[in-house]
Design a protein that fits this description.
four-stranded mixed β-sheet, 30% helix, two-stranded antiparallel sheet, GMP Synthetase, Chain A, domain 3, 6 strands, globular, alpha/beta, 3 helices, 108 residues
Amino acid sequence: MMNVISNHTMNATIALAALEQVIDPEIGLNVVDLGLIYQLDFDETEKIIYVTMTLTTQFCPMGDTLTAAVRRVLEKTFGERQVRVELCFDPPWTHERISEEGKRFLNQ
């Protein structure tokens, strides 16, 4: 599950598979392989998914688009839950967060 922290391994695995559909339009790689997803927590009582993610830069022009897409994909995947996305820049994103598959895709 790469470097993603979660309180529910099975749900996080399902969520990450779904989030592979969310592509950063500037880079052409999905948010999971880019390493933009830091944490996925599932509040089973309140039916809320908390997502902590980052962007490649704090000033990423696609930030709103990416966070909305993450929210939409998770709401579709886990229909009965609300999704709350929080952007976090600590630790800052680096190329080291890109998965091996992502590096192959980017020819790095």
